[in-house]
């Protein structure tokens, strides 16, 4: 099947990833049936997508179970695709969460059991760990102990990820939603103790969330070879334009537990975003694509983004998203300028270099 | 079940421990039946206690066997609790004891067999190793060889604990009854050879035994992130007040092999302690708790103590001990001062910071 | 069986290799039957050849399968021979090739499965990896990032080979067709991170391809102990003299997919080589050996070459090739000079020291 | 059973060895029956000897097989004794000997198979490796390459022993018949690359072979903590005094393949030794022990010797040898002086400190 999927190295690592990944958040193991999950995964694989992204916390483990069952049924060679999962929230007990050695090891072992795999390709720390022992009280020994407390915690984390890689349970490790400073701490601790540094950060990136991917991660790419995977290219559906006239009854924002999304959309800020989206829709029209396709293509157009994680509810949606890849080539520098003018939120000191 | 158990990081590690641990010394595999052991363990787990402490030497291995059998019967997730054991005295043969590589490895393997577990969470060196080759005779090569002899021994020990962690047989390692200097030696050797440092010291701590926990371990917490677990909060029962009027017939001190305890109680020093206990009992009365509960609460009130190991003979006793946790909040700074005045043994250079 | 096979250390490693190795390229799993493969392998082993060389890419894995099946049938002790394989092109998927951690590990695991072995003795990187992320575009952070990109890639490669050695899947690792600079990068990264350096480079070497083996590898032998294995001593058959009068109908150069070979032979340069071969044939005649035997003997005469890989289509050919070893002793310094005069291509700065 | 066996740390390691070890050279698997081997081993174990010494080369592997079979039958806990084996000569193939990574790993694996054990306690390099690539020819790059060649070889050896220890196949490693300089090279390479240093040298030591144990090893004990095990306390039987009047018909020196021993005994030097032995026998008489017992006791009297390896042909002989331990206490400083006067071979710069 001819497909617009392309491949590049993830950061300066040797791992060749497709420019889009299939995510399983909300969908696998919860919103969609196992049959639909299989249909989506099959289309993704056959289209050339080679990265499937999940996490121990997605649907409380069921996302991994469904993904694992489908992979088991298929006869795809294990070496032909990349599985990524994330560790942080694993269970209710005090010891089943966070980035301590016990949970990183036990959490990943449980993920592998659910996935029925011997190893994942990338294991992510799903959040930085703020559970540093409080040091607010008087410290008679040192004024820098808060900082040194952090270093002990980072050492434990980097040692634990190095351990699971050396056990053969993961090929690489990465961070998700860590600050640039935290990533540099991990890199520096890895160098100090000759441990394995992370190769990739997973970060939110879309029209309205640009700061980290455009300002901070390019520097980390150049300095420590860090790759960038991004998620939420449609900002939880906002960028599809479906909330242009309010909250449709069957939309995600109408769901009870998504009231935060509804509030965001109906806020003043949200209304300003809807106006911008109306203008961007005109550009999409001229490029003969949907607003959602433009939003995805715009993410991919950023040279520093190697892989955009997409979540879909059905295979048609995935098919449409994949077509967005063809739009990338149509975004001329003139179009880029028009989009930038509409958004009006280019970060100062940003470094969005276009492909 | 609502419970006063609280959790904190053990030192600057990421491991979240309950503020009390259930110990198995004297009880599991010896003084109590397996049924009572199960009743106690169940109450502990259901109350939120997540640390169960044992050692290869307890009841000559039977403590571990009983603990392992109960854990096997229960359906608690392995990730929801923390098992700690200790290595030093493993058997009668010359090679089955001490902190050499052979015994650390063989001893821990045997402990795991008895516990029917794949790994413990913390393995402790149950004593520092004084079996350093004697160097009393003339040494024609160096005047510092005694010191360097120690370093070789410490290197072997730290390498062996790093090895069992890298084999996946333990998550962390700690020391028990090591001096601050010995712990710093281990830390320094770990840094020198890029091995894994210990994360915790287990130390005796109660009204009458304060020096190490209050003077030395806080410094190690700040400098190398070391956590503190304490044991003997009731000083082998002395602090329950039951020896106020001598040695009751069925008390532990009346046992033949505990004559040292009897002697201690009946000594001049012991009598002075009984006097102080009578005064402390008055404070306990005002706080509407028993003297034992006050003794436990007082340990927990020390901010540098993350976890107090409790040994109990029946589940009622454990229930009473857990209630002691509620007393902690009632110990005002005025109460603290009164206790300090009665004890009159605050260490110079001490650093007892209250929660 | 008396045989002229000799043994030496591969570079400054302790591995004792026979001076010729049996290669499996083109033959095992493709041009020859399994029966013939077994006949050849048996003759090789019984003649004292202890190195059998293959690669994951040879006959798309079938070379390893055939080699593995024969070794399984034979009762030779695993410790009595050396298996070498090479990793780079493993499959069609984007993730199944190149020198990334995922493919080095998955590729070697698959090779071991096909070979039915627990480990190989040397695993080679079958090519240097040019898939370095392009850095042509403006880099706002550093002018040296292209270089540092390489370093990240080399670190990943050396870490992965160290990993497979520490897993027990290979005894040593080497490079194939890497430049001297690339090998030094790998060595330097190994020293920087205390990883395992490569012990050998596999390189083309024959009358008409001399530069790397004579100019660059001797320096690497002296500086970093690197061994040299060479292949294509007959330049794909050109040096047998069979193309003296054009392209015979059943020769390899007549095959459709070998048109490059045909073109090379019929080029001006090719014709000049044929003329030189006619002169060399006269020397061979005087030494009572074939031109092919002289070509092989001349490779072995280079003191820096520890092992010459031979590929043969039948056991007679192997027998003849082994006889070439007896010719080595007959190449006097006067003969050497005559050969040098005919070839006229001794590299400047070369370092061909004769045995 | 009351026994004169004593225990000490092997060098500055934590391993507690009995002061005599039972060796298996010549006897197990060759000169004695399996029944006698079992009788000897049982007496040794029950007398408190906890070190059993063998090698892959002894009786071409049969010594290990017999030792393994007996250990299998006995119900002694694995942790109660120490098994040592040695690697160097493993088989006939070129790749089955020497101190390269391939043979160290394959050799030890084969030893473990024969011994039916998961691990040995100490694996020895049975000889230093002189198979350094010859560098006699002109070296255009460096005048120090011969030295650096050695370093590469030593690095490979220390890496391989560290590997087998990290695999759990050995607890410690040591050297046998290495020079002090070679041991220091291994130690220095271990420090350079953070590998595991050897803990013990096994060396010949008796009345007529004193240089290394008395002059060189004490320094290594003080500087790098090296332990000393010695063998041949009776110099292949010479020190029993049985060759006083020539070569008895059934003695070892009368055996065909031991003609070197016969020659040594009948040489001028040999005759001088017989004269000294006659004088020493008088001292033995005064101490109420045999000459052989005196010879063994004299080895043990050296404070730097932690363990003397004894080989015996039957259990009576072992019983007599063990009684020698009681003689140690009877060797007063006056006796020591008399012995020294008779021997007249105290090494200059020697450091024989008596227990």
CATH architecture type of chain A: Alpha-Beta Barrel
Biggest sheet layout of chain A: 8 strands, parallel, barrel
Give the overall silhouette of chain A. Answer: globular
- Report the structural category of chain A: alpha/beta
Q: Quote the CATH topology of chain A.
A: TIM Barrel
Helix-strand pattern of chain A, N to C?
EEEHHEHEHEHEHEHEHHHEHH
What's the helix count of chain A? 12
Rg of chain A over CA atoms, rounded to whole Å, is 21 Å
CATH superfamily of chain A: NADP-dependent oxidoreductase domain
In total, the number of strands of chain A is 10
Which strand order does the major sheet of chain A show? Answer: 3-4-5-6-7-8-9-10
Instruction: Compute the number of structural domains of chain A.
Output: 1
Describe the structure concisely for a colleague.
4 copies of one chain form a homotetramer. Chain A is α/β, with parallel strands linked by helices.
Can you give a write-up of this model?
Four copies of one chain form a homotetramer. Chain A is 45% helix and 13% strand. With 355 residues, chain A is an alpha/beta fold. Chain A has a single domain (7-237, 298-331), classed as TIM Barrel (Alpha-Beta Barrel), CATH 3.20.20.100. The model of chain A is unreliable at 131-145 (pLDDT under 50). At the A-B interface, α4 and α5 of A face β1 and α7 of B.
Produce the secondary structure layout.
The structure is a homotetramer of 355-residue chains.
Chain A: E1 7-9, E2 16-18, E3 20-23, H1 27-31, H2 34-47, E4 51-53, H3 62-73, E5 82-87, H4 101-115, E6 120-125, H5 145-166, E7 170-176, H6 180-192, E8 200-204, H7 211-224, E9 227-231, H8 259-266, H9 268-286, H10 291-301, E10 307-310, H11 315-328, H12 333-343
Parallel strand pairs in A: 3-4, 3-10, 4-5, 5-6, 6-7, 7-8, 8-9, 9-10
Antiparallel strand pairs in A: 1-2
């Amino acid at each position: 099947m001819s497909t617009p999927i392309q491949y590049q190295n993830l950061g300066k690592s040797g791992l060749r990833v497709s420019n889009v990944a299939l995510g399983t958040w909300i969908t696998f193991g919860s919103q969609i049936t196992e049959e639909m999950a299989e249909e989506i995964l099959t289309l993704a694989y056959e289209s050339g997508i080679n990265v499937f992204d999940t996490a121990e916390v997605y649907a409380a483990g069921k996302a991994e179970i469904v993904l694992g069952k489908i992979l088991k049924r298929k006869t795809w060679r294990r070496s032909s695709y990349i599985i990524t999962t994330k560790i942080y929230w694993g269970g209710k007990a005090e010891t089943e969460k966070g980035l301590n050695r016990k949970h990183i090891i036990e959490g990943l072992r449980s993920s592998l059991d659910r996935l029925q795999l011997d190893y994942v390709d990338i294991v992510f720390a799903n959040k930085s760990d703020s559970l540093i022992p409080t040091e607010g009280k008087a410290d008679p020994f040192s004024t820098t102990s808060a900082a040194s407390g952090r270093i002990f915690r980072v050492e434990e984390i980097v040692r634990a990820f190095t351990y699971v890689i050396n056990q053969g349970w993961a090929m690489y490790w990465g961070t998700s939603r860590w600050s640039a400073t935290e990533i540099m701490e991990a890199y520096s601790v890895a160098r100090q103790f000759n441990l394995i540094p992370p190769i990739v950060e997973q970060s939110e990136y879309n029209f309205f969330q640009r700061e980290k991917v455009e300002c901070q991660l390019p520097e980390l790419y150049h300095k420590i070879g860090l790759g960038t995977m991004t998620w939420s290219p449609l900002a939880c559906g906002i960028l599809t334009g479906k909330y242009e006239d309010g909250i449709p009854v069957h939309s995600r924002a109408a769901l009870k537990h998504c009231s935060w999304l509804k509030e965001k959309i109906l806020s003043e800020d949200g209304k300003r975003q809807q106006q911008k989206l109306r203008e961007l829709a005109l550009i999409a029209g001229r490029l003969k694509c949907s607003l959602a396709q433009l939003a995805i293509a715009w993410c991919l157009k950023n040279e520093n983004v190697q892989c955009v994680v997409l979540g879909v509810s059905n295979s048609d949606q995935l098919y449409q998203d994949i077509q967005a890849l063809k739009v990338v080539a149509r975004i001329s520098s003139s179009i880029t300028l028009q989009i930038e003018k509409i958004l009006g939120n280019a970060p100062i000191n940003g470094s969005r270099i276009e492909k």
